Amino acid sequence: MLLELFITLLLIHSQVLGDTSSSEEDENVSNEHEDDHKKSSSHSDHWDYHNQRSWLSAFTDCGGKSQSPIDIVTREVTYDPRLPAIKLDGYDLSGHPELTLQNNGHTLQLQLPNTMRIVKGFDQVYLAAQLHFHWGNTEVPGSEHTIDNVHFPAEIHVVHYNSKYASIKEAASKPDGLAVLGAFIGIGLHENENYEKILSVIKDVSTEESDTKITSFNVRHLLPDSLEKFYRYTGSLTTPPCYQSVNWTMFNDTITVSRKQLAALEETLKAGHNQRLSQNFRTPQNLYGRQVLASFLTSHTANAGGSSETNTFSRTRATGTQDGLTRGDILAIAFGVLFALTLLFFSMYAYRQRQKHSKSNPDSRQNVIYKPATKEDV
Ligand SMILES: [Zn+2]
C-alpha cells in the first residue's frame, strides 16, 4: 500500500512539473494560433504576441542577453548624477504637413519627420522616425516595461536613430543605432486633448495595414510634462528582429488619458484574421547583469509609486501574472515537499523492515521490502 502511494505521488509529481515547464504565454495559445504559426513558419518575418518564445527560432537576437523590455527594480537602480538632461528640438510640428498614422498589424504607429531630434542627452544627435504604443485590454494592463513588477495600462515609444547613420534601416542593427524615449500611460479623470489628436481618428485605421493622415501637432505634448527624471539602460527592440541596438530612456513621470481614450486604444484596432489588436506587449526580459541608471535619487522612486492616482490604479489593475509564484509553481513545490517526505518515510520504513527481517531471517533480504507490507501494513 505504501509502495502504491509512493508510485502514485511520483506520477502526480512528474505531471505537475511537466505542466509548469510550459510557458505562461503558451497557455494562451489556441489551436488556431498554433496552426497559423505552423502554416506560416516558412515566413521568417511572421510573428505575433501569442507565442513569444517562438521568436527565438526565427530571430536569434531575441534570445540575446541585452533584451527589452525589463522590469525596473527601483531599489536596485544606480543613481547617476552625471546623466545629462534630455533636450528635444523640432518636436512642435504645428503648421507642418500632415502626419501618417498607421495600423501595421502590431501597433498604432505615427510616422515622424527627422527634423524632430534629441539634441542633448547622448553622445550624438538622434533623429526621430516614428512613435507607437503598447497596450493590454480592460483586464490586463499592457505596458512593456514594469516598475517593481507593476504594469501600467499602456506605454508610448518615440523611436530615434543616430544621426551618423543615413537612415533608421541602416541604424537599427548597430549597437549605437537607436534611442527610444518611453513613457508610461495611466488613467486620469480628464480627456487628454493631445492624445485625442491621434485617438479621435483611430477608427480610420481599424483594419491591418490601413493608414490615414492627421493634422500635425506638438508631439512634445504626448510625453510627460517633466523629462527630468528617467531610467536609462541598454537594450533592444521589443519586437522581432530584437536587435540589441537601443539606448533606452524610460521617464519616471507618467501621462494620463481618460478611461474612454484608453478603451479606444484597446478595442478599436484589428490585426490578421479580424482579430482584435490588443495585448501587444512583450514579457519583461532578464537583465543578465545589466545596470539600470537613474537620473534622480532612487529613494524618491521607491516612494513615488502608489501615491498618485495613476499608480494606484495600475497597481489595482495588475494581474500578478508577471510576478511572484504562479499557481503551477506552488503546486510543484507542494508536491515536491510531499514527494520528499514520502521518500524519507519510505526509506525509513524500508530500513526498519530490513533491520527487523535481517535479525529474524538473514538469508531472505531480497524480499524484505515487500513481505512485511502484506503482513503488517493496514
Ligand atoms: Zn515599442
TrEMBL record:
Catalytic function, reaction form: hydrogencarbonate + H(+) = CO2 + H2O
Signal peptide start and end residues: 1-18
Stretches the record annotates as Disordered: 20-45, 356-378
Domain of life: Eukaryota
Single GO cellular component term: plasma membrane
Domain annotation Alpha-carbonic anhydrase: ranges: 45-296
Record SUPFAM superfamilies: Carbonic anhydrase
Pfam families: Carb_anhydrase
Keyword Lyase: yes
UniProt biased composition (Basic and acidic residues): 30-45
Function field: Reversible hydration of carbon dioxide.
Family as reported in the entry's similarity comment: Belongs to the alpha-carbonic anhydrase family.
Protein's name according to its UniProt entry: Carbonic anhydrase
Organism: Pangasianodon hypophthalmus (Striped catfish)
Organism placement in taxonomy: Eukaryota, Metazoa, Chordata, Craniata, Vertebrata
